[in-house]
Write a structure and sequence with these properties.
By secondary structure, the chain is mostly helical. It is built from six helices and four strands, in the order E-E-H-H-E-E-H-H-H-H.
């Protein structure tokens, strides 16, 4: 299905962090498939964007995975700090800052599919560095304290075309959206 990323969440090759694993119990015989490997650990070692944007600083900045669980090495995330940020201070829909900034979590367009395919097969890290640069440059975002209350802003500024009050004069800002 995916690999465990820097955030301690499952990231899928096609959907990044927009995956919510579930359990289905069955007595049917199922064939085991091979583990998924799309070079995520190497990419996460270079990127660290999720750690930089995290408002609670719950995500590790380590260069290599140091935490071991069930024989697997992975990056350590302070899940208690993450949960507190999610529940208490991250606006009406929870935080998800790490998911939204992850270069693997982009729309499934042909451009993004092509980039993900290149990233998963690049042993040199050159395309990874370019993708990280592009994420930081082409998608400006808010960081850490800007994401915390009382001035919760969200990770990204909404584009101008979606800010209806900029071009539709009949909208009036009133409590609860009532005119």
């Amino acid at each position: 299905m995916g690999e465990i990323g820097r955030t301690s969440n499952c990231l899928a090759p096609d959907f990044g962090g927009n995956v919510r694993p579930a359990v289905i119990t069955t007595s049917l015989p199922l064939a085991a498939d091979k583990p998924v490997d799309f070079n995520l650990a190497e990419f996460c070692s270079r990127c660290k964007l999720c750690a930089q944007v995290c408002p609670t600083q719950a995500i590790s900045y380590d260069d290599k995975p140091k935490f071991e669980i069930y024989g697997q090495r992975r990056f350590n995330t302070n899940l208690a700090k993450c949960r507190d940020g999610w529940n208490l201070g991250a606006g009406p829909m929870g935080c998800r800052a790490c998911i939204s900034v992850c270069p693997w979590t982009k729309k499934n367009t042909w451009v993004h599919r092509f980039v993900r395919e290149v990233l998963s097969h690049d042993a040199t890290g050159t395309s990874q560095n370019i993708a990280i640069w592009a994420e930081r440059t082409l998608y400006p975002k808010h960081y850490q304290e800007e994401l915390n209350p009382p001035n919760y802003q969200g990770v990204y500024e909404p584009p101008k075309w979606i800010q209806t009050n900029e071009y539709v004069s009949s909208f009036v800002n009133t409590p609860m959206g009532v005119k």
